[in-house]
Structure of RNA polymerase:
Amino acid sequence: MRHTDDKELIRLLRLSDYAAFEELHHRYWLKLHKLAYRKIGDRQDTYDLVQELFIEIWEKRGTLNFGEELPGWLQKRLWFKLSGFFRKRGFNGKHQENFRQYLENQGFDKCFDPAELREVNACYEDLLAAINKTIEEMPNRMREVFILHRRQQHTVDEISDKLNLSPKTVRNQLDRAIARLRRSTEAYDATALEILFIVWLIF
């Protein structure tokens, strides 16, 4: 199974081939665990959440729409699991510290108190999907700038050098990206803190 590509793996999984499921688990478990641990900060909770994700994949193998790109689909599935985790559990000390550091890195540490985000409300999964869709639909350059800044924590000057753009152009792209996110979430009556929380989940 090690040399089986993802599409064939999915085909075999749909046929209830347990060896294909084990290969899927072997191939992606560690990466998903690392992503989830960065948000949760607790190894046992992270382990349980990722295991639940794979159990759901096996139990719903015949009905899930895995899409064209398996790693990206798995990450999106993980984001929904994380959203549900925080909705049920709220924020404890470790979660608040992880989120506080993110806000500080984004320059929002004096604007928001992470304690305000006591519990994720029921609309977060829809909000998460809307934000992710907006990011995917951004023009290529805008999405590249946004991801470099949010996911990889590059500064405006670093992005400017990397992409051969002026700092002003980089800032304009970031401002337009944020404006798109705000427009896409208007129907959910989301606060700025809630939007930042979802972006933190994704990145």
